[in-house]
Design brief:
517 residues; Growth Hormone, Chain: A; 81% helix; binds ligand LYPLPQDE
Length: 517
């Protein structure tokens, strides 16, 4: 078989990255829809009369289908129907759910409190039924295109799109809604619709790739190894494996302390630390926007030149050029910060915008830590460190009252949110055989949804309980609801130690670099 005969669409790197962008639309928009309500919590109280418990109920019920096996059913469907049909069906369910929530928020099903709440929930249940399966479809599709190429990088970038969706949804929903809930929900739902159109475009290339690969295998007589189908006996075998059990439970406790927290973080910053939720005036937006675009473009041009300069052979072998380059980069960065300082100050004063820095930061930190785990290992130890940072973060945001310590708390939460996923997900691939990975991830996500359900709802209900008698609009006390999350951090540390100990016995090499296995 000559190389020319073997060439398919996936052998072109431009094609692979273009496919990743088409696919990542679904990741971006579903993460946006999952998290955008966080920036609107106060408004949902004042405009729609939703209590914290009702806010929590909306979020919690998003997970309900996944708690009862939707991810596993979706995985089985994906195996049976293939990427295209599964993506369209589950992406379509997410769009339908988004549309129902948007119509409900606009008063289409009735403008009384009960109709709005119930129909937003119906929409969220449908959306949630599609959400996790869409993530599985995206992962499977990335493997299809990137196996043998930059697979880990492609997965990290896809996850980056998801985090960007979370960050932008949290930061911008209030501005998009212009002070109302309904336009922000409509916008978020429209994004999933647009992403589904991007996925439909993707399917054209997917069909072409399948045809090319079939032609190649028909000619060569090669038969691919089929993935093993899901069996309940696999689940039992997985759960009996101590390392898997500990990492799956860690996934529950760790994410329970992060995802639900992020939904309440803007409201916490406003209520506890006096952050603002005021919208800027139109004139100010234009001024900041032009300043930010101008400064960012100058900075980008500097970097394009720097990169061009760096790729010229031998430029970096000279110590003096290296020093000049580093000083230039530092001066450009200081200049950038100077121009952006007003915008940063306003950004860091706003509850939703500051909270959005948590997922935004992970886009930079996760690949750095992922690279560290690949090269140096220490995955179990990094999970211990991530859990420690989680405890510090939640203590600084609950019992301590200092806004500067709170900024450090948010920073350490961002680092923990990058460290643990970067160490956790590749570790599962060391513990579980490749043809059982689908079952392993589906099991972990299912358990994770149980934790999310409990804490999405629990934090809201606890918030109402400890703030009984405090009228709407008055600051709420978040101490106890966030202190509960410190407990999740302690359980996470305990599980990380158990995992490290079990790994020493079972020899999966979680502390070793990836390429040594
Ligand atoms: N934000 C909702 C999507 C969750 C997707 C999935 N269950 C998950 O946990 N992915 C890993 C991650 O760190 O986002």
């Amino acid at each position: 078989m000559t190389e020319t005969l073997k060439r398919t669409l996936r052998d072109s790197s431009a094609m692979r990255w273009a496919m990743l962008i088409l696919l990542s639309g679904l990741t971006f928009s579903t993460y946006w829809f999952q998290d955008f309500f966080s920036g609107l919590k106060g408004l949902m109280g004042s405009e729609m009369g939703f209590s914290s418990e009702e806010f929590g109920r909306i979020l919690a019920l998003t997970t309900i289908a996944n708690m009862f096996g939707m991810i596993i059913i979706g995985g089985i469907m994906l195996d049976k129907w293939g990427i295209r049909v599964a993506g369209i069906v589950f992406g379509g369910i997410a769009v339908l759910g988004g549309a129902i929530s948007a119509l409900a928020a606009s008063g289409f099903f009735g403008s009384d409190h009960g109709s709005m709440l119930n129909m937003i929930i119906v929409g969220r249940i449908l959306f949630g039924s599609g959400l996790e399966v869409v993530c599985v479809v995206a992962t499977r599709t990335i493997v299809k295109w990137f196996k043998g190429y930059d697979l880990a990088l492609a997965m990290a970038i896809n996850m980056g799109f998801g985090r960007l969706g979370s960050a932008m949804g949290t930061a911008l929903s209030l501005d998009i809604g212009g002070g109302h809930v309904s336009p922000a929900v409509t916008f978020a739902a429209t994004l999933i619709g647009l992403a589904l159109i991007m996925f439909l475009i993707y399917t054209v290339f997917d069909i072409k790739l399948d045809k090319q690969e079939k032609a190649i295998s028909d000619k060569s007589g090669e038969v691919c190894d089929p993935e093993e189908d899901f069996k309940f006996s696999d689940l039992i075998t997985l759960i009996k494996n101590k390392s898997f059990l500990y990492i799956a439970l860690l996934c529950v406790t760790f994410y329970a302390a992060i995802f639900p927290f992020m939904q309440y973080a803007p409201d916490l910053l406003i209520n506890k630390f006096g952050f603002t939720q005021n919208l800027p005036q139109a004139g100010e937006v234009i001024l900041w926007g032009s300043k930010a675009i101008g400064a960012s473009s100058i900075y980008l041009i500097f970097f394009l030149f720097a990169i061009l300069f760096a790729v010229v052979p031998n430029n970096f072998e000279n110590k003096k050029t290296r020093f000049l380059f580093k000083s230039g980069a530092l001066i450009a960065f200081c200049f950038y910060l100077f121009v952006m300082k007003d915008i940063l100050a306003i950004w860091l004063d706003n509850g939703a915008k500051t909270a959005s820095l948590i997922p935004l930061g992970t886009i930079i930190f996760t690949p750095i830590f992922g690279n560290y785990v690949d090269k140096k290992g220490k995955a179990a130890s990094l999970m211990i460190l991530g859990s420690l940072l989680l405890i510090f973060a939640h203590i600084s945001l609950s019992i301590l009252d200092n806004v500067y310590i709170a900024y450090f708390g948010l920073l350490s939460l961002g680092v923990a949110f990058s460290l643990v996923p970067a160490a956790m997900w590749p570790s599962v691939a060391k513990i579980v055989a490749e043809n059982r990975l689908g079952t392993a991830y589906a099991t972990m996500f299912t358990l994770q949804n149980w934790g999310l359900f409990l804490f999405f709802w629990g934090i809201g209900a606890l918030l109402d309980f400890v703030n009984q008698g405090i009228p709407e609009g008055q600051p709420k006390d978040y101490t106890i609801p966030i202190l509960v999350l410190v407990g999740c951090g302690f359980i996470s540390i305990f599980l990380s130690f158990l995992l490290k100990k079990a790994d020493r016995k079972q020899n999966y090499g979680l502390e070793l670099p990836s390429n040594s296995n």
